[in-house]
Design goal:
single chain; mainly alpha; Arc Repressor Mutant, subunit A; Four Helix Bundle (Hemerythrin (Met), subunit A); 2 domains; three-stranded antiparallel sheet; 10 helices; globular
Length: 237
């Protein structure tokens, strides 16, 4: 006779199914966060709880929940006397984010160069064509989205869930930086030229070449963002 396991199974009687629809708090959070990322709420602008609630047609409670979540993420900060404002970028934010990205993303590209299969490159090639089409037609507002999708596909080639998670943890500040970068048409064109060259290195399995290029690609962007930041600082003096 086989011995029965003595491991106890937890009692799930008190569990109920998770609702499939998003809560009002989650909807308010996503709407507010998107507004901050897109620049609809620029740095230092006030976020007024009742105005957001009225705009969304909901009560203030889920909006308050969303604001507190964004505060924990560092996107909003409270005034000493009450209320909240959008946190702007600092030089240290730029330095740290681009420095970390240059290490993580160049390593991810290196791994992808080794790990990928030929058919894995087709979606990236399609993104390059889509990006170029929007660039040629002057649809610059589409470039940030396409660029982000290209980089997500690129780093997925690494097949390293831990590394991809670390890169994704920087997604929000990176998105804000990309909007700055891709407003500069010269930088927008250079970005896609780099993407084409990245693909050439990956096809050749040139790990050194792609790692170096991705690092340079990111650090070049850092210098553009620094110039934009310095100009903004001068205008506020």
């Amino acid at each position: 006779m086989s011995r029965q396991s003595t491991t106890k199974v937890g009692d799930l009687k008190g569990f109920t199914s998770v609702p499939r629809r998003k809560s009002l708090g989650q909807i308010a959070y996503e709407k507010l966060k998107q507004a901050v990322m897109k620049g609809d709420f620029p740095p230092a602008s006030h976020v007024v709880e009742n105005r957001v609630a009225d705009a969304l047609g909901i009560s203030r409670t889920p909006v308050r929940e969303a604001i507190h979540k964004l505060e924990r993420e560092g996107l909003l900060k409270s005034f000493p006397g009450g209320g909240y404002f959008v946190v702007g970028l600092t030089r240290q934010d730029i330095e740290e984010t681009f420095g970390i990205r240059s290490v993580l993303e160049s390593y991810a590209a290196r791994l992808g160069t080794v790990q990928h299969k030929g058919e894995d490159l087709h979606p990236l090639e399609e993104k390059i064509r889509e990006y170029q089409k929007c660039l040629d037609e002057g649809l610059l507002e589409e470039l940030t989205r396409i660029n982000t999708e290209f980089h997500d596909l690129l780093y997925a080639l690494s097949r390293s869930p831990k590394l991809i998670k670390m890169i994704n943890d920087l997604r929000d500040p990176v998105y804000r930086f990309r909007k700055i970068l891709l407003r500069v048409e010269e930088m927008a064109r250079r970005s896609n030229e780099d993407h084409v060259l990245m693909m050439a290195y990956i096809r050749k399995r040139d790990t050194e070449g792609v790692e170096k290029l991705v690092r340079e690609h990111i650090l070049r962007g850092r210098e553009v963002v620094f110039r934009h930041f310095d100009l903004q600082q001068e205008e506020t003096l």
